[in-house]
Structures are given as C-alpha cells and as structure tokens.
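Hi R.,

Here's the chain you asked about this morning:
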Amino acid sequence: MIPLRDTIPSRTFPYVTILLIIFNGLAFLLEMSLGEYLKDFISTFGLIPTNYFRQASQGGLGIIPRFFPFFTSIFLHGGWFHVIWNIWFLWIFGDNVEDHFGHFKYLLFYIACGVIAGLAHVYMNPDSTMPTIGASGAIAGVMGAYIIRYPRAKVLTLIPIFLIFPIINIPAYVFLGFWFFVQFLSGFASLNISGSYGGVAWWAHIGGFVAGMLSIILFPRKKEKSNY
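And here is the predicted structure, written out as tokens:
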C-alpha cells in the first residue's frame, strides 16, 4: 500500500518536518559524494549492535562512540528508494503530529523515538555486526503517535494489484495498524536469524511505533480534543 495523502490539514506550518526532510536529503547526498569512503563512513556513523555492547566494557571512554550512532544513524540511508520512501511517510504523517506537540517538542519527540527504536534494534539483535541506518524508527514513532491522535482520519492510498491500481480512502487506524502488524510478524520471524546479516530493522520499527503511541497516551494535548 502506498499512501498519497491524509485528510487532515495542518494548522501550523510544519517547519520541523520540512527541515527534517531537507536534512535527511542533504545527508544522503553527502553519502553519495563519499565514493570509496562510504563504507567506512557508514561503519562509523551507523548503529552496530555488537559495537554497542563491546563499548559498554570501556567505561567512560566508551560513552560517546557507544551512544553517538543512535543519533547519527537516523539521518542516513542506504539508497534512493530508502530515503524517498522514508521522507514521503514523514511528509504525510509528520505535519499533524508536529501540530500536536508544537515545533520544538516535536523535534525532541522525533529524536527520542529514533533513539528508542535503535535501542530496540540492538537489544533484539545483539549479535549483529551490520551497520543499521535510516530514519524508519523515528518515522515509525510519528506513525505511532498519529494512529492514537488521529485514528479516524483517512489516508488516500494506492493499492497495486497486478495491473490494476485502485486508489481508496483507508481509515488511519486500518492503514497504520496493518503496517504495524506486518512489522510485528516480520520482527518475530527475524528472531531466528543472528550474526552478520542485512535486511530491515524490524524491531526498530516496532520500538519506534510503540514509543510514539505511548508519547501521545502519556502526554496528551489537554487544551484540544481531536475530531478524528
């Protein structure tokens, strides 16, 4: 399913969402300019579970290299499809979540979801030596917040079925609920895989989504009730 837009107009200009999209795009262009140095760059700034646990034994000296990738990895991507897909979801769902939190709190929320997503990934894949990059975990947090805050909103969705491409309105709780269900099943299926492997960081998606849901539940907007 490919979301095209939602039905909720922004009440305020989504400065932070747009800045995050621009920053992710610029970071990806930087990656593309590195050529033969890209692999070392990703190994340094990507999130590697085995490094996280190895650096835990270094005490104070290991704090910065241990936790820095949780922040840098959420702005890096592995290819054009990866970055475009992520920023498209951020564009569709981010503006309304930014409305809910306000600009500065939304930025903190986004980064916090990214970090929590990274923690979920490393603790569920402690033996992985592969660098993990991508904004998916943080954006999953945005989607988790959206499903709680605007469950009855509609998402105009393109559904490719062989050579037929119907476009229908799907309730947000159905669209995002199905997305999370797929991540959940895939995450449990991935538990049988360990060591050096690539693929999708399913548990980062799950952790970010749950963090986003809990953020809305624990920190509701008191002065306004949602109509969606």
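One quick note: The mean pLDDT is 89.

Cheers,
M.
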